[in-house]
Design a protein that fits this description.
By secondary structure, the chain is an alpha+beta fold. Among the domains are: 108 residues, Butyryl-CoA Dehydrogenase, subunit A, domain 2 (Beta Barrel), CATH 2.40.110; 120 residues, Butyryl-CoA Dehydrogenase, subunit A, domain 3 (Up-down Bundle). The protein is built from 13 helices and 8 strands. Strands 1-4-5-8 form a 4-stranded mixed beta sheet. It has a 4-stranded antiparallel beta sheet with strand order 2-3-7-6, with no helix packed on it. β2 and β3 form a beta hairpin. The longest helix has 29 residues.
Length: 419
Amino acid sequence: MADTTLDDFRSEVTTFLDDHAPRREASVAFAWGEGDDDVALFEEITPEEEQRQLTEAKAWLATRAKADLHWIAGPTDLGGRGLTSAHEALYRSLETRYQVPNQGFFGIGFGMVAPTILAHATEPVKQRYLPAMYSGDIVGCQLFSEPGAGSDLAGLQTKAERDGDEWLITGQKVWTSGAHYSDIGEIICRTDPDLPKHAGLTGFVVDMHAPGVEVRPLRQMTGGASFNEVFFDEVRVPDDHRLGDVNQGWTVALTTLMNERASIGGGGGGGGGMGLASASRLIQMLQHFGLDQDPVARQELARLYTGYQVAKYTNQRAAAKLKAGGLPGPELSIGKLALTANLTATGDFVARVLGPRLMADTGEWGTYAWSTFICGTPGMRIAGGSDETLRNIIGERVLGLPKEPGIDSKSPFKDIAKS
């Protein structure tokens, strides 16, 4: 498997996709009308429709698994194909040319939870969950933020107390995407309040269907409810589901956060894919409203396009580092920051072009989807680390600036005033 060339792999993948999914028509790849909703962020859908989409997504992953195309760069002893990240990227590129089910349900599991399990979990946990995640049998979520610990993640208060060969988890998490349809979650808990806040944390894999787990949806201004708050009331977790050593959870969290920023920042908003702001799409918008020769509109579009291209090349540099065996670093925070900057700039551009049509929701040129896009963008400025936190990371770890004053990282956590 490891000696499969990219050319051979391209031929294999193309044959598979031709056999299992219809091709997208090139002439309507950026057309409007049918498919306008693909620009919406956090849109409202019924539980029934969400379940239908999830079922289709799982079926598609199962189909990929039968062809050994579900975990292309994964280790063979865990059910992966054992190929390179270049093969993985080639598959993703080729798949965009076909009409396949929405796989966003697995984004957090594949991009954040699974890499952390692979790096820090016990061998039985790896064997139990990773093959099942990549074949679509189970879905994973990330349980980090709390009402009083968002940007300051190390200030979290959800506790895990040892009880023989198990741990009892009690507390609350918030802004957990996809918790309501997830089967497992990666959770970071406070295990020693006598240590400084970064030192007394431990990570676990928790069963989201276990007794004591309660998931409550959070309605957003888009109308959607993809975020949740999750309550834990003495939820039992086996010690072999611990991620890394006791009180070393900050290292585990950093693994997840760096992969999260790589996953989010390397997506369409950060790097220019996903169709959110393709040049073709926005040029068509200008043409439709007779603005394609307007010098101001053309200049704004050029500036927007440049922002996406710069982000794309920055992400490619970070990806090259990972491909060479490096670890995710602070440069990935730049990709996530570029994501929100590009999404915000896209919303501003579209709002100026559509004008009152955007609020009137006339249906012309996907106005409903674009209004949902604009209302959903503020949520992306928080997801994966707030913009302010990422600027601090870049300032401290990339530019070498002094740390933010007033952050107590030396006192025992129990002695620090809580919000």
